[in-house]
Amino acid sequence: MDTSLKQRLIGAAVLVALAVIFLPMLIGGPEPDSGSSTVPVDVPPRDDRKFETRDLTLAPALPAPAPATPDPVPMQDEDRVVTVDTTDAPSRIDAVSGAPVGTELASLPSPESVTPSAAPPVTPPAATSPPAPASTSTPAATPSGRWAVNLGSYANATNASNLVSQLRGQKLPAYAEQVSHDGKAVQRVRLGPFAQRSEAESARLTVQRIRSDLPTGVVSLEGESAPPAVKAAPAEGFAVQIGALRSETDANVLRDRARAAGFASYVERIATANGALWRVRVGPELQRANADRLKSEVKTKLGIDGNVVPHP
């Protein structure tokens, strides 16, 4: 009895175990695929085919540069009209040397050797700063140029001649023209002429470095009539003396004050028994009546009661 019961219990346990193992398989179906695969690890047999080994460059080869070809010759336009650069600027003659304006400086006579007029020697206006060498890149003058640098007009021809001489000594193309200003003959000093405005502006800056006291400005010569023929300055006349100072610096200050008021003023150095004096004068004028009228104008504008004196 005990043996039979034991066998039944063992059989029941086996059935339960089989049920636990196989029943889920019967109910849930086959086990899902895990996605893994079996890779064979066997070494394949050696192939009897012949192989060739080659080295491959990773960077692509650059194409060879194309040979340079000359620029094509431009086609000649059969209808093209030949043009000529013209200007309305008339030919000009230097009042100091008598040579055409724009002539090479080396071929011009030295201003010291030319007597521009019968006016007496006058000390040139003192510069406020020592002369500096002119720039070697100063453009050359062109006789048919249409631009110039204006450096002021001077009633005294000797002052104008001295200024032209100083600027030519610095290799600048300076020249003087005799023109009429308020019915009086004056010497107008200029640089040029220049073909381009930029060249005239460069020359103007060069003059400023040499003589900062000069009034400078670029002017156009197109349409400007040439000045009349040069005439000799009056040998005698009258001027208005507004001061005689022992200091050259003070004399120059007074001269500049008169110029700022619109008068043509200059400084003369004279020797006296008590030392040198610097006379400051306005003018000159050819007629005594004009000198008297100039004296009244000086009194009104400068508040200085000057004296009419002979000139020279």
Could you name the key traits of this structure?
312 residues, alpha+beta, Alpha-Beta Plaits, four-stranded antiparallel beta sheet
Question: Can I get a quick summary?
Answer:
The protein is an alpha+beta fold and about 300 residues long. It has helices at about 1-30, 155-170, 195-210, 250-260, 290-300; strands spanning about 145-155, 175-180, 185-195, 215-220, 235-245, 265-270, 275-285, 305-310. The strands form 2 sheets. The chain has a 4-stranded antiparallel beta sheet with strand order 2-3-1-4. Strands 6-7-5-8 form a 4-stranded antiparallel beta sheet.
Tell me what you see in this structure:
Among the domains are: 105-220, Sporulation related repeat (Alpha-Beta Plaits, 2-Layer Sandwich), CATH 3.30.70; 237-311, Alpha-Beta Plaits (2-Layer Sandwich). Helix content is 26%, strand content 21%. It has 312 residues and is α+β, with helices and mostly antiparallel strands.
Task: Give the SSE map.
Elements: H1 2-28, E1 147-154, H2 157-169, E2 174-181, E3 184-194, H3 197-210, E4 217-220, E5 237-245, H4 248-260, E6 265-272, E7 275-285, H5 288-302, E8 307-311
Antiparallel strand pairs: 1-3, 1-4, 2-3, 5-7, 5-8, 6-7
